[in-house]
Amino acid sequence: MSSSAIGRKGAATRQRIVAGAALLIRDRGAAQTSLDDVLEATSTSKGQLFHYFPQGRAGLLSAVAEHEVTQVLEAQQPYLSDLSTLESWERWREAVLTHYLELGDKCPLGALTTELGKTSPETRAIVSRLYGTWEASLALGVARLRERGAVAGAIDPDHLARCVLVAIQGGVTMLRTTRRVAYLQVSLDAALAPLGISDTTAA
């Protein structure tokens, strides 16, 4: 077998372990998910796990955090990368609501903030980077709207971006508890009100 084939197989095995651990943590929480649980759920041997994660649990949790960050950002694409029109903001809003309605209390954002972000300085830094990247994308979108004259020039892009992130996080927290996306919809629409983007129909 070629080295490239071995590399692809190894990468697939590592990803399978990470994805399986992520699902367990979304369902049970990080504190309630042991390495033995991950081994059983992913049909992985202890030797395999420590081959890919020499640091054990700490290394695996960091990898899961990176995985979940990717899930959060990719779910918002292609809209998050180009929020230069009100139409693109509306499509982004619908994508966010649809994504979290489908996932319910198993969403990666909730696991990142309430679970993984507390496990170590490494995972905390990963979660912090997520919010920094996300905030920058939203702020850039607002700035582009201002440049085009699509929204009031008095709107502060950084402030609005932070309000949107807080709205999503709060709404997702309540969604995870109640399984009602209406909380996320109301909070997100309130944050987006300065842009004139909302839907008065509660989900």
UniProtKB/TrEMBL annotation:
Protein name (Swiss-Prot/TrEMBL): TetR/AcrR family transcriptional regulator
Keywords assigned by UniProt, alphabetized: DNA-binding, Transcription, Transcription regulation
Highest taxon listed in the record's lineage: Bacteria
Domain HTH tetR-type stretches: 17-64
PANTHER family: HTH-TYPE TRANSCRIPTIONAL REGULATOR LMRA, TRANSCRIPTIONAL REGULATORY PROTEIN
Gene source species: Micromonospora vulcania
InterPro entries on file: Homeodomain-like_sf, HTH_TetR, Tet_transcr_reg_TetR-rel_C_sf, TetR_C
The UniProt record lists the keyword Transcription regulation: yes
Domain Tetracyclin repressor-like C-terminal, first and last residues per copy: 104-188
Entry-linked SUPFAM superfamilies: Homeodomain-like, Tetracyclin repressor-like, C-terminal domain
